[in-house]
Amino acid sequence: xxxxxxxxxxxxxxxxxxxxxxxxxxxxxxxxxxxxxxxxxxxxxxxxxxxxxxxxxxxxxxxxxxxxxxxxxxxxxxxxxxx
Length: 83
What we know:
Blueprint: E1 2-4, H1 5-10, H2 12-18, E2 24-28, E3 31-36, H3 39-64, H4 68-82
Parallel strand pairs: 1-2
Antiparallel strand pairs: 2-3
């Protein structure tokens, strides 16, 4: 579903009810400018993003040969030096 910025502004509470069923694309001059999604969907997307970041970090550590224990030890040592 697509609506204009003006429509979103004029009927925001109505559109917030509708996003529980599906996202609403907001357009500006006929081109997509943003999306209204439910808070639950937003939180799900945040969790997926955090998981993907952790997977990238894990793969990077694996490829570098650094273990999680070494990384923890180095981080702890650095924090203790700052104290």
